[in-house]
Predict the 3D structure of the following.
Amino acid sequence: MKCSYCLKEIERGTGFAFVNRNGTTRYYCTNRCKKLNLDYNRKLRIRENKPTAAKA
Ligand SMILES: [Zn+2]
């Protein structure tokens, strides 16, 4: 399997598995990748929740 963040191949017996609330599982080669990916998702969610500025 591959790291969900950096897409590096994870050797068997290493890495982290993270199960989302919606049931999907993500794999990370290192704790750092896990943290970065979760932070990234959080930022995306914050951006989505912001009301869109009136562009048009
Ligand atoms: Zn990784």
Q: What stands out?
A: The pocket of zinc ion is lined by residues 3, 5-6, 8, 28-30, 33 (CB under 6 Å). DSSP finds one helix and two strands in the chain.
